Amino acid sequence: MNTSSSAAPSAPPSAAPSPRTQVKRAANRASHDPAVLHAIIDAAWVCHVAFRDEHGVHCIPTACWRIGEHLYIHGSNGSRMVKRLADGECCVTITHVDGLVMARSAFNHSMNYRSAVIYGRFETVGEYGNEVSKRAAMEAFMEHLVPGRQEEIRPGNDKEYAATTVLRIALAEAACKTRSGPPEDDEEDMAVAAWAGVLPLREARGTPVPDAGCRIPAPDYVRRWQE
Ligand SMILES: Cc1cc2nc3c(=O)[nH]c(=O)nc-3n(C[C@H](O)[C@H](O)[C@H](O)COP(=O)(O)OP(=O)(O)OC[C@H]3O[C@@H](n4cnc5c(N)ncnc54)[C@H](O)[C@@H]3O)c2cc1C
Q1: Separation of CA 178 and ligand 1 centre (Å)
Q2: What is the largest CA-CA distance in the chain?
Q3: pLDDT at residue 84 is higher than 60
Q4: Of 30, 39, 89, 117, which is least packed with CB atoms within 10 Å of its CB?
């Protein structure tokens, strides 16, 4: 799932905050460490991309993956999002919810999470001479989804690639925030007779369901899906 092994040259990592990635609220939960950002992106299937057009602000969920110091997305050439992102600034977010934090007071309830906010402008992959080709980016996407899958399937043809736009945004201006651990109750609430602790949440992998017409025995990556 991690596509970080790409040899693609890297943009500068987001080590220092900019004015808009300087976390002010609960700043003790902030990180600008590229390794934290990479881990949050690599664990994600989906990001949300916020952008503005003549009708206002939109925030659209879409699949994402990482190669080196860029986050990648793709879509149909006809997609409004794809067309607008080439024109201007946007903000990408990723959120993983790891648990519900049950405090003794209503006020101190919280969530455990890992989140990332990335600012910048997407560029089109395969044009303007950037070093990752559209095909290489899409193959990295398939490997991010299910390692080993790319070797088995029919690769995209010229017509399919021509109908698809791949975009990437540099991870140069980004902030992460993470919370973990127990509730933080006020001292005067410690005697309240309420259960306190964390109700963990995690994504579950279900049992693979073969397509009705599939006569192929399950390959390793399918048999290992739930491990
Ligand atoms: C699962 C989840 C649930 C949350 N629930 C609540 C809630 O119910 N109420 C609430 O007030 N807040 C909640 N938060 C925290 C929320 O995301 C904001 O961090 C918080 O509201 C402060 O926002 P702000 O714009 O005032 O922060 P500021 O500190 O002013 O933000 C400054 C900059 O810090 C960065 N930043 C801010 N928040 C995040 C973040 N979460 N991840 C990465 N970068 C960030 C951005 O670059 C932002 O521009 C939740 C977060 C998560 C992940």
Answers
A1: 10
A2: 67
A3: yes
A4: 89
The answer to whether the beta carbons of residues 117 and 48 sit under 8 Å apart is: no
Helix and strand counts by DSSP (H, E) for the chain = 5, 11
Q: What is the pLDDT of residues 145-185, one digit of tens each?
A: 999 898 899 999 999 999 999 999 999 999 999 999 999 99
Domains and CATH numbers, the chain: 27-223 (2.30.110.10)
Q: How many degrees, rounded to 5, is the angle at CA 148 between CA 117 and CA 136? A: 60
The residue ranking higher by pLDDT, 83 or 86, is: 83
Residue identifier of the C-alpha nearest atom 47 of ligand 1: 21
Considering only CA atoms, which of 92, 128, 118, 214 is closest in space to residue 171?
A: 118
- Alpha-carbon gap, residue 215 to 227, rounded angstroms: 23
Find out whether the beta carbon of 175 lies less than 6 Å from any atom of ligand 1. yes
The predicted-structure confidence for 68-83, as pLDDT tens digits, reads as follows 999 999 999 999 999 9
Compute, in angstroms, the gap from residue 109 CA to the centroid of ligand 1: 15
Does 95 sit in the ligand 1 pocket, CB within 6 Å? yes
Is the CB of 100 within 6 Å of ligand 1? no
Q: How far is CA 166 from the centre of its chain?
A: 16
Q: How far is CA 201 from CA 96, 100, 112, in A?
A: 10, 7, 9
pTM, to two decimals: 0.92
